[in-house]
Amino acid sequence: MTTRRVAAVDIGAGSGRVMLATVSEDHLDLIEVHRFANRPVRVGGTLHWDVLALYAGVLDGLKETAGHLDGEPLDGIGIDTWAVDYGLLGPDGSLVGLPVHYRDARTDGISQKVAATVGAAELYNRTGIQDLPFNTVNQLVAERSGSRLQAAERMLLVPDLLTYWLTGAIGAEVTNASTTQLLDATTRAWDSDLAGRLGIDPGLLPPLRHPGEVLGVLYGDVLAETGLTDPHGGPVPVVAVGSHDTASAVVGVPADRDSFAYVSCGTWSLVGVELEQPVLTEDSRAANLTNEAGVDGTVRYLRNVMGLWLLRESLRTWADRGEEHDLTQLLAAAAAEPAGRWPVDVDHPSLLPPGDMPARIAALCRETGTPEPETPAQVVRCIVDGLAEGHRRAVDDIRRLTGRDVEVIHVVGGGARNTLLCQATADACGVPVLGGPVEATALGNVLVQARALGVDLPDLAAMRALVRRTQELRRFEPATAPTTPGPTAAPRPTRSSRRPTAAT
Fold first, then answer.
1. Which residues are marked as active site?
2. Where do the domains of the chain lie, and which CATH numbers do they carry?
3. DSSP-derived secondary structure letter, 50
4. Strand 4-11 with 76-80, pairing
5. What gap in Å lies between CA 387 and CA 418, rounded to an integer?
6. Residues whose CB falls within 8 Å of the CB of residue 182, separated by 6 or more in sequence, listed in order
7. For a FRET experiment, which of 8, 151, 198, 416 has its CA 20 to 30 Å from that of 310?
8. Where is the Carbohydrate kinase FGGY C-terminal domain (predicted)?
9. Whose CA is closest to 285, among 137, 139, 397, 140?
10. How much is the pLDDT for 196?
11. Higher-confidence residue: 487 or 178?
């Protein structure tokens, strides 16, 4: 039996961490060895990612990892982050400015300009990607005439940029590259013609890489700084994983059947199913569903729903006012509020940028003539119900457009801890919800690495079976069963009285 010890670098919009895993065919153990903040910085009116601080956090995490190895070698490292954002490299390989945050306002109105140039239907037919203002293609068009892009020779998405700094390897892992809206959905090759029509130099786009490829080995100075020098004298490889964190999370979904949907729930709720081929119809485009590349040639057919960002921004707003709230207590108070009293569209564009989220939610309620939530508990109830309704709409549209039955929904990621949200999702969708694993992204990351390094996990089914055997899951039954089985929309039932726990 083959055993591998690998590190997962997993960076989300709020924080990053380095996890150490021991993986074999019948064993999967994961510990967090280091966590670091991911704090965006506004400079000159533009919101940036502090990617140098993130790189320092990665190095600190690898140093902590070395301390946990007890002299044993580290077999591999895999990196996943959020999607769409990028760094630009100049001719000498140096970074040209800090990466810009996808929530920055520079892309306002750009997607309409892109659609006017290419045509919305053609753009979707070629790339299969959901129309979102912050897609990479919109960001590149927004800075098309700027000095940064004119000075750049390569564009590297954030996980690829970190890999470059660790190893010198230049490439674009395909699951993340698919989110740029510059990848052909059918061939999974860069659409150079599309880039050229939009005034983007196709030469910016690096060679594509696939999960399971060894991208490179750690530089000698990185080995020295982190203490990861292999006592056997061998290199420490960086392995391509599903570098879009959702792609890794879907690998970690503990499904035992094809008729499942998933909600990868963190800053965003990514609600989808796993397909073999993209759905590129006009109805799919109208429903704003996306076809992102998954591990092992799969398609992540999903919709982005705003996610726990709404709750985090609300908590931050209250804290800025001097109002400290315990999230567990807030969720318990929210569970006592009536469900559905404060309906709000959680995907409204006004909720995308940072700011006073409770005030924006109240404004949306006024616009639609519905009651405004007046207390923090009512705001939380409004957010949870809105997210559950967003999950239901996505699942219903996916059922309708694919003909696929959904017998169970897996909620993975941080949202799996939020029992109020899991129960509300089960109630709204009318099917059972399985909550967990919380660490699905890191698990998917290390499983792909372990397979590439010789552990006998031949396919996604084997990986998911190992997750089921080793991870804790929790089941939530809908308060009312759906009246019509199969791919048709289910009625929205009443809420349950399950006591909630905290997670954002």
1. 245
2. 4-239 (3.30.420.40), 252-437+472-504 (3.30.420.40)
3. -
4. parallel
5. 12
6. 127, 136, 137, 190, 191, 194, 195, 200, 205
7. 8
8. 261-452
9. 397
10. 97
11. 178
Length of the chain counted residue by residue: 504
> Rounded distance, CA 306 to CA 70, Å?
42
pLDDT for position 234: 74
Phi-psi domain of 109 (left: phi exceeds 0; alpha: psi -120 through 50; beta: other): left
Does the pLDDT of residue 484 top 50, yes or no? no
Q: Are the C-beta atoms of 211 and 296 separated by less than 8 Å? A: yes
Res. 71 pLDDT band, cuts 50 70 90: confident
Average pLDDT score over the chain: 92
Query: Helix crossing, 110-118 with 120-127: angle to 10°?
Result: 90
Residue 231, pLDDT above cutoff 80: no
Fill in the amino acid letter for 430.
G
Structure-token pair, residue 374:
């007046």
Q: Helix, strand or coil for residue 87? A: strand
How far apart are alpha carbons 428 and 187 in whole angstroms? 37
pLDDT (tens digit per residue) in 242-287: 999 999 999 999 999 999 999 999 989 999 999 999 999 999 999 9
Note whether 292 and 279 are within 8 A (CB). Answer: no
CA distances from 421 to 68, 313, 341, 413, 480 (A): 35, 17, 16, 12, 16
Place of tokens 């499942």: 260
pLDDT (0 to 100) of residue 383? 96
Q: In 252-355, which ranges are continuous DSSP H helix?
A: 282-286, 309-320, 327-335
Nearest to 220, CA basis, from 265, 274, 166: 166
Q: Name the residue among 186, 180, 184, 238 with its Cα closest to residue 211.
A: 238
The structure tokens listed for 241 are 């994983």
Closest of 3, 55, 450, 78 to residue 239, by C-alpha: 78
Span 52-72, average pLDDT:
95
Taking the C-alpha atoms of residue 373 and residue 304, their distance in angstroms, rounded to an integer, is 25
Burial class (CB in 10 A: 0-12, 13-18, 19+), 265: buried
Per-position b or e across 138-153, b if 16+ CB within 10 A of its CB = bbbbbbeeeeebeebe
SS3 assignment, position 337: coil
* Residues 305 and 271 sit within 8 Å (Cβ to Cβ): yes
Distances (CA, A) of 29 to 21, 25, 193, 304, 445: 5, 12, 45, 30, 13
- Between the two ends of the chain, the Cα-to-Cα distance in Å is 38
Query: In the structure encoding, which two tokens stand for residue 66, read together?
Result: 């070395």
Q: How far apart are CA 503 and CA 419, in angstroms?
A: 9
Residue-wise pLDDT tens digits, 30-49? 999 999 999 999 999 999 99
Work out whether strand 208-209 and strand 172-173 pair parallel, antiparallel, or are unpaired: parallel
Q: Percentage of the chain with pLDDT > 70?
A: 94
94 half-sphere exposure, CB direction, 13 A CA radius: 5
Per-residue pLDDT at 198 exceeds 50: yes
Query: 10 Å Cβ neighbour count for 97?
Result: 18
